[in-house]
Write a structure and sequence with these properties.
binds glycyl-adenosine-5'-phosphate, 33% helix, 13 helices, alpha+beta
Length: 430
């Protein structure tokens, strides 16, 4: 795809998201708020489907994982110990002429991209988002919104261990919001100041780290291709060199994705050593009495951005065909799995029968009901939001108790008995 087409693509996706209720600009009626976005009725379904697939796959389906859901604001001592107050910063440069500010490491040239002015010397800018807890606003009441969900998994490590009696290796997973005072947010939901992460801290013995790192590398590939439906050719691994990794990491791979605005980080996989647990616990927090072991576990951390997952999925799924726009979402991710239509809105017997089908299917699937306009328009409307199947109740239905089922991708139609619909859809959607 040519560069102009790619930049057009992101505009088309942003416009579809607004038009159909996936994602709206945050605080829009007040003029918005610096790159904040709200997920609308369809967006929250897509996002929740991604999060549930993740939780199911990495927490429920594995014997070596448990989950937590910790507070967003933690004791500031956490961030002292984790090194974030000291090290979690990006190099900021300011233009001498227009005073716009940029992240130095993201600039292609050493001049202001807005006015071509000269740039000042870079300063380190801490990304932690501050607020005050309680009624008094002074230094003692300063707290920070967490910049990663990870730290709660370290701070709660002993509580989890004591309550679950886990033995190494095992992992703790969490899905939740993280906050960073990004210097240059942008590219729609790609870089925002408030976003969601799905993270695993996987605790191991030091000598196992290379094998475990490899195991998670494969798991992350499988997630991207099998669950999200991203294409292998659009995903690239970047081994982050010494000196450019986060302060806690001995090895990091970024999984980059070919977004329409360029190849950018989608996810990360890091070997965090025993850095975090050593900084939080004075005594080794792990003990296996039978094995005579007392140690600081090492950690491999696979981390996934939720919003970047949503964006990659939308970029992959968006397609234009002759007369229609289709979101070719994998069925497991589609906000609605099925839409039900009566052929004609003004025939009460058709509407009644369609309502019956709709309510029966709603017990099993997320289902839309539409009786506006003509059938063709309704199909295209569902294609645009990625609904895999549309069901039409017509006059033959009243005679034969069957319906037309139309496939989003092939646009082929077939007659299915109402009593067989559930099993038909379950097979097709799995
Ligand atoms: N605990 C490790 C950690 O937080 P990270 O690479 O800084 O590592 C993990 O962040 C993931 O979170 C990224 O790969 C990306 O998917 C997502 N992410 C990071 N900053 C983001 C931002 N400002 N907006 C949206 N997603 C972001």
């Amino acid at each position: 795809m040519a560069k102009e087409e790619k930049s057009e693509l992101i505009d088309k996706i942003v416009s579809l998201c607004k038009r159909r209720g996936f994602i709206f600009p945050g605080s829009e009626i007040y003029g918005g708020l610096a790159n904040s976005w709200d997920y609308g009725p369809l967006g929250v379904e897509l996002k929740n489907n991604i999060k549930s697939a993740w939780w199911e796959r990495f927490v429920h389906q594995r014997d070596d994982m448990v989950g937590i859901d910790a507070a967003l604001i933690m004791n500031p001592k956490v961030w002292q110990a984790s090194g974030h107050l000291e090290n979690f910063s990006d190099p900021l440069v300011e233009c001498k002429k227009c005073h716009h500010r940029f992240r130095k490491d993201l600039l292609e040239k050493n001049i202001c991209p807005d006015c071509k002015g000269e740039l000042m010397e870079p300063k380190q800018f801490n990304l932690m988002l501050k607020t005050f807890l309680g009624p008094v606003e002074n230094d003692d009441s300063i707290v920070y919104f967490r910049p990663e969900t990870a730290q709660a998994m370290f701070v709660d490590f002993k509580n989890v261990l004591d309550t679950t009696r886990r033995k190494l290796p095992f992992g703790i997973g969490q899905i939740g919001k993280a906050f960073r005072n990004e210097i240059t947010p942008g590219n729609f939901i790609f870089r925002t100041r408030e976003f969601e992460q799905m993270e695993i801290e996987y605790f191991i013995k030091e000598e196992e780290w290379k094998n475990v790192f490899e195991m998670w590398r494969k798991e992350m590939w499988s997630w991207m291709t099998d669950v999200l439906g991203l294409q292998e050719k659009d995903i690239h691994e970047l081994d982050i060199p010494d000196g450019e990794r986060a302060h806690y990491s001995k090895k990091t791979i970024d999984f980059e994705y070919d977004f329409p605005f360029g190849r950018k980080e989608l996810y990360g996989l890091a070997y965090r050593t025993d850095f975090d647990l050593k900084n939080h616990f004075k005594e080794p927090p792990y003990e296996n009495v039978e094995a005579g072991e007392k140690l600081y576990p090492h950690v491999v951390e696979p981390t996934w951005g939720v919003d970047r997952s949503v964006l990659a999925v939308l970029c992959q799924a968006y397609s234009e065909e002759e007369e229609r726009i289709v979101l070719k979402l994998k069925p497991n991710l589609a906000p609605y799995k099925v839409a039900v239509f009566p052929l004609l809105k003004n025939k009460p017997e058709l509407v009644k029968k369609a309502q019956e089908v709709y309510h029966a299917l709603k017990k099993e699937f997320t289902v839309a009901f539409d009786e506006r306009g003509n059938i063709g328009k309704r199909y295209y409307s569902q294609d645009e939001i990625g609904t895999p199947f549309c069901i039409t109740v017509d006059f033959d239905t009243l005679e034969n108790d069957d319906v037309t089922v139309r496939d989003r991708d092939t646009m082929k139609q077939e007659r299915i008995k109402i009593k067989d619909l559930q099993i038909f859809l379950t097979n097709k959607l799995s």
